[in-house]
Amino acid sequence: MLHRHLAIALALAGSLLVLPAVAAEQDKPTPTAKEILARSTPAEWRTPDPQNLLFMQLPTGRVVIELAPDFTPLHAANIRTLVRNHYFDGLAIIRVQDNFVTQWGDPNDDDNGDKSKIRSLGKASRTLPPEFTRPIDAKLPWTPLPDGDVYAPEVGFSEGFPVARDPASGQQWLAHCYGMVGVARDVAPETGSGSSLYAVIGQAPRRLDRNLAVAGRVLEGMPLLSGLPRGAEPMGFYTKPAQRVAIESVRLAADIPAKDRPAIEVLRTGSASFAALVEAKRNGRNAFYARPAGKVDLCSIDVPVREAKAAH
Amino acid sequence: MLHRHLAIALALAGSLLVLPAVAAEQDKPTPTAKEILARSTPAEWRTPDPQNLLFMQLPTGRVVIELAPDFTPLHAANIRTLVRNHYFDGLAIIRVQDNFVTQWGDPNDDDNGDKSKIRSLGKASRTLPPEFTRPIDAKLPWTPLPDGDVYAPEVGFSEGFPVARDPASGQQWLAHCYGMVGVARDVAPETGSGSSLYAVIGQAPRRLDRNLAVAGRVLEGMPLLSGLPRGAEPMGFYTKPAQRVAIESVRLAADIPAKDRPAIEVLRTGSASFAALVEAKRNGRNAFYARPAGKVDLCSIDVPVREAKAAH
């Protein structure tokens, strides 16, 4: 919403909007996302597998990433190995390119770096099979979207991730939507290891689809990656080391005692509440948005995440 | 590009890539955007009308906005009046909502503000006819895109702006792509005056199309609007006044002596070079991007802007 007045905006976002009793049915505001989520059932939420959940601690806060091993299993495994080596601890955000990506990794592993100080990947692989696409498989969940896509014959959601697919080739792939996490690489397709990752911070760069491996999605903390000064070098690399945000640590949820893990839940993309959210995006109507779009594109749909308060 | 190594990236971005002489024609890299622009002719660039060009000075640098009076003429006129009153000088960026918008205006004109200090709009109107759409008109330039759109029957460019249109209704409108500048309003459609504006900083919120007036586009300085900390209040409003970025001044190019105006040019969206750029987005291929998307969506196309160095 783009209100000049916060109170009006909040009233509309909530349920405080009072309409005349004579308003026709089609003029009634449709349920808001907040209302839909308030009615969701516990079974509609899933707890990500702790083997797939990463906590990246920055000086400014915590970024939570869910890996997608059904789409990029070798990358997920290699990233876990790196994380368990504490590979990322002390590395940094090396690049922020406007309307494109925020990338992190080893500052010495680029041109201005000190090659003698490049950090070892330890037991992790330096190269991996690309995993740019994977076969369509009826065993994976699939929630199609109804409004088409400029880039792919079919789009929808699978296990919380935005997915594009091409029945003609039998392949599917994670789409480069806002907040998706991809694997940086050199020119050769197999040179991505997961030691340098990027998050999409602008209009979905869908031309990257099928050219890079997508490892997962940022569940929490996107503002910590997107709200950073852009780097002045070509492609958004920072000019001075002091401009880089340091990575304090990256940890796997599975390596944190269960009682200390944040209780993060993600709305199931096969749930009725998720379908209602998609419909609210397509045809949501209130006093402010009088003209529903009637459509929604894949990358305009947010998959809700919540964190239950610790009971102890 | 998502290279780990800057040198490789720059080589690919330029023309330094050496391929074996035996490479088949289809394996040759296609021209890069940089190469296409280097070959563009002076006549392919236009100088925006100084009546439509705004310079917003922030402590961090200059944001340049081009108004779009062929789409929102009453809003353009009202914004000019506000600017000539120096209305915006000393106001601020009041809101940064992640993956949505950065909005500026009068901090006192919201809930936490001091109503007694709301700045007068002077001779500018407090309300305007909405101008959410306008008729399709053969007199306006039109460069259609070939790959369709999720939201509208037709999309393309007109005078440097991304446009969607619906031949059935005979209407067209500026699309809410990254960097487009819209007019904040209250609930009633006519309550937008241009005294509070927003720029899109995330995935194109196309559901806003036809619900809000779009006044123009940021030509330069998007990183100064997008690379800001997100506000912690609902909808990205800042919690504390000190978090707001101040607007030092907003000036119209027409009010600056011609010799002192930055010589900003925008590539004509009807030019051959622009068509080549669109084709490079669709089917560009190099050693890094081996698999062209074959398609491009409206909001993934950047309209190039350049600034000639002053000759004096």
From TrEMBL, chains A, B:
Signal is among the record's keywords: yes
Superkingdom as given in the UniProt entry: Bacteria
Signal peptide (from-to): 1-23
Species this chain originates from: Rhodanobacter denitrificans
Region of interest: Disordered: 104-130
GO terms of molecular function: peptidyl-prolyl cis-trans isomerase activity
Sorted UniProt keywords: Isomerase, Rotamase, Signal
EC nos: 5.2.1.8
Name of a matching Pfam family: Pro_isomerase
PPIase cyclophilin-type domain boundaries: 59-252
Enzyme class: isomerase
Protein's recorded name: peptidylprolyl isomerase
